Amino acid sequence: MDVDTRLLRGFAAVCEEGQLTAAAARLLVSQPALTKRIRQLETLLGVELFERSRHGMTPTRAGRALAAHTDALMAGWEEALRATRAAAAEHGSTLRVGFEGGIINLMTQRTVADFARRMPGWQVELRQNNWFDPTSGLATGEIDLALWHAPPSLARRYSVAVLGEEPRCAALPAGHRLAGRAVIDFEELLDEPFVAIPHESGHWRDYWLAVRERGGRPVRIGAVAHNTDEWLAAVVCGQGVGFAPETMSRLAPREDVAYRPVRGLSPSRVGLYWPKDRTPTPAMAAFVRSCRATVGLGNRIDEREAQNTPQGLSQDTPRAPWAPERPGMP
Length: 330
Hints:
This protein is of the alpha/beta class.
């Protein structure tokens, strides 16, 4: 019996959410489409998987039996995908790099040219990160490296080649009451409405809303954006303010947006990330070197942090600041 993995993903989402509406939103599909998938799976298996009521959907005995195996089935399939893509990457000629909307401004043609010199015959495929996937495709092997602004604590989840640090600044509509300030205190923004990214982005949503710095004070959400263009448009239209990498103010300025430094907001660590269980390939290592040679950041990581080198990377990388997680960092 052949089963489409989309049917299993839909089934698992409904089990976890307890209703079609929330599950459909999580999977980025319409509710009728998800209903159709559940019906298809029930028809294929010849059983009813859910008891339906106005309060939601509850797995039947058969549904609970299937749910007990679904996570393992999907995890096995995702592991097979990662292994297949990793094997192909060892002999392929394309390095897939994910990036945030604003961070791509750090790269130039020099970065790609330097990589081509180090890896003749290879090319870089750039993919904008999916805000509905906290891993941006690293978990499934859809990308090889992710270029992120991130908190230092992310080094607990991923291996990272650190490129440097830069401040997070406030992005305000040009007519905002604080737009005329040279520097804004973080406390002055606590009651402002914010433009948020989707709940599905997980820890990234909290990071770009500066939840940690708020000390438990709730965030007012003025709008939710699903990509960088929507986020910037919401700021411009006065639906909320937001935090952005400082590079956006330097490399992608707009007359209708005021970017201002924020006193009391921790900086971002900029780096190339990949899963801890994956050994870097020569192409990944070469791209790290190319970024270090061509990407300009105001604050480089101190050389004293370069004490460890992730497995698979040689020690001859220029500057080679493979920054380990520092004791006491969040």
